[in-house]
Write a structure and sequence with these properties.
48% of the residues lie in helices and 13% in strands. It is of the alpha+beta class. The protein has 3 domains: 165 residues, no CATH class; 230 residues, no CATH class; 107 residues, no CATH class.
């Protein structure tokens, strides 16, 4: 059993021991010369109940924010409650205890041993059976005081461990986010290089590749191996190509463009002809879901293709290096085969190739009139606020995190705008579960963008984007409302001034947190000309903005 299960068992053991002691107290009350010992036993019962209450408080504190309140109460009452072993709960608890998980488990196991020994000496069997002949144990203080002391010291140690770790939890999460985003930057840049090497076709016009933004950071603890975290990531993309040879850039978003979905999984370096066990990728379910969310029952996270190897019949497949990704996707589409079709390689680091297994996931076009749609198109629509306020704030959070995920990679332009952000749309309904950054391929090795530093221009551009999102209007339209700036005239006012001039409206719509996030991005008084993850200011500014946006998101969504 894990330490958390054992903690539940200890909580369940104390009432059993207390019940046995009360049974003995009642028996001694009928035996005249033994009545004086009932005072000592009542004191022991009180001490055990006190330790039980303290342990309940420790467990409740540890579970708070991870498990629903109703479940917490049920877990404290039932040592065999399934939530003690629920994988998601256990993962959160491990993360909360950080590097002190082993200490927690050792203390809990020591407490369990003490309670087990006390139960044995009291003659409590598997079904709680009590034996009056064990009365000699309860009358010997040295016997039970030692076990009580072991229990008390264990509870005290848990109190200190849990309190200390929870006090540091927020700071640790922020530091972990920086590590997580640094890892994503590295992988995203590597994927860009792998795509650049594998998109070698001579198709008319350029392909659009949309990299799906990660919407939820992974907490990296000191017990995690960075290589294991990296290999566990799944990157989802959309790929466009011409349905006919006549398609050009002019009809990029017309029906002449076809879209494929695919995922990339980092793989360990292996020989190209080494067999790898794979299975079928997730199948689509027309008519029930839309866009990319059709691949997932939860609607906000795509299915992981590696899980299909368990559900389907796994088979041996030799992974080959894909030289022409466009041709491979067309072949998979034509044959209707949605399985690992090989890998693409990032050879930008000599001697250290990095490979990514490619899983075609089908085409969204077969499930209706599905298409990516730019944020610029959404904000430019008549009526403006196409998206609900909660969706707009969530988008603001995701887009802000994209600067941490992609801010120093070739995926993100120097000053990102609404034209670089894409959502999904079907039948004029916009869905916000999946957000993409679009790039055009092929890219030549000479003209291709290179990773740079995160600069002040990116932060200022983010501030403008945040204003556009919360107001549901493009900055161009807000310029026409420039009368608040007096006689200066809207034409002479920068986007940044216009954005700052809307803070009073933003405060009314959302509140001061969002306003503070906008000001931190646009003003930039305390920032250097470039921000990177080796600089304390650069590491903290966007994480702070994310925290502010997350508070408003929780308020709006009632979380």
């Amino acid at each position: 059993m894990s330490g958390f299960e054992v903690a539940g068992v200890v909580l369940g053991s104390i009432p059993i021991v207390v019940s046995a002691l009360e049974f003995y107290i009642k028996g001694l009350g009928t035996m005249g010369r033994w009545r004086r010992f009932t005072v000592e036993l009542n004191s022991l019962v009180l001490k055990l109940r006190t330790e039980e209450a303290k342990l309940q408080n420790v467990c409740e504190k540890l579970l708070r924010g991870i498990v629903d309140d109703d479940h917490i109460y049920a877990m404290l009452q039932d040592p065999l409650h399934p939530m003690w072993t629920e994988p998601k709960t256990v993962a959160h608890l491990r993360r909360r205890l950080w590097r002190h998980l082993k200490l927690f488990e050792e203390n809990v196991k020591g407490m369990d041993q003490a309670m087990g020994e006390m139960r044995r000496k009291l003659g409590i069997g598997a079904h709680g059976k009590k034996h009056i002949k064990r009365i000699m144990f309860v009358l010997q203080q040295d016997e039970y005081q030692s076990l009580l002391r072991q229990l008390r010291e264990g509870v005290s140690s848990l109190e200190d461990l849990v309190s200390g770790n929870m006090e540091l939890e927020a700071a640790r999460c922020r530091a972990s986010q920086v590590k997580w985003y640094r890892l994503l930057q590295d992988l995203s840049t590597s994927i860009y290089e792998a795509l650049r090497a594998s998109v070698t076709c001579a198709c008319p016009g350029l392909h659009d590749f949309g990299l799906r933004l990660m919407s939820q950071p992974t907490i990296i603890t000191p017990l995690d191996e960075p290589s294991d975290i990296a290999e566990a990531q799944k990157f989802f993309l959309v790929l466009s190509y011409a349905a006919t040879a006549l398609a050009t850039e002019a009809n990029l978003w017309a029906a002449a463009r076809l879209w494929n979905l695919l995922s990339l999984s980092p793989s360990s370096v292996r020989d190209a002809d080494q067999p790898c066990t794979v299975g079928n990728a997730p199948t689509t379910n027309p008519g029930r879901n839309v866009g990319l969310t059709m691949l997932t029952p939860e609607g906000s996270q795509m299915s992981e293709p590696t899980q299909a190897a368990v559900a389907g019949v796994a088979r041996e497949l030799r992974l080959e290096t894909i030289q022409n990704l466009c041709r491979s996707m067309r072949k998979s589409r034509k044959q209707g085969i949605w399985e690992c079709c090989g890998h693409i390689s990032d050879l930008s680091t000599p001697g250290k190739p990095r490979r990514y297994e490619v899983y075609p996931l089908g085409s969204p076009n077969s499930n209706g009139n599905w298409t990516p749609v730019s944020l610029a198109s959404i904000l430019g629509r008549e009526g403006g606020k196409t998206l609900m306020l909660g969706d707009r704030i969530r988008l603001a959070w995701v887009i802000t995190s994209s600067l941490l995920q992609l801010g120093e990679t070739p995926w993100l332009p120097r000053a990102p705008s609404r034209n670089d952000i894409f959502l999904t749309q079907q039948d004029e309904v916009v869905y916000t579960a999946d957000v993409f950054i679009m790039k055009k391929f092929p890219v030549s090795a000479v003209s291709g963008p290179t990773a740079g530093t995160m600069n002040v221009a990116a932060l200022k551009a983010l501030g403008v984007l945040l204003v556009e999102l919360v107001l549901g209007q493009a900055i161009d339209r807000l310029h026409s409302e420039g009368s608040i700036f007096g006689q200066r005239g809207a034409a002479s006012i920068s986007d940044y001034d216009v954005s700052l001039g809307q803070l009073h409206r933003i405060n009314t719509i959302v509140g001061p947190n969002y306003c503070s996030a906008v000001k931190r991005c646009i003003n930039c008084e305390y920032f250097q000309s470039s921000l990177d993850f080796d600089d304390t200011t650069g590491k903290s500014v966007l994480v702070t903005v994310l925290d502010l946006l997350e508070r408003d998101l929780k308020n709006v969504m009632g979380g």
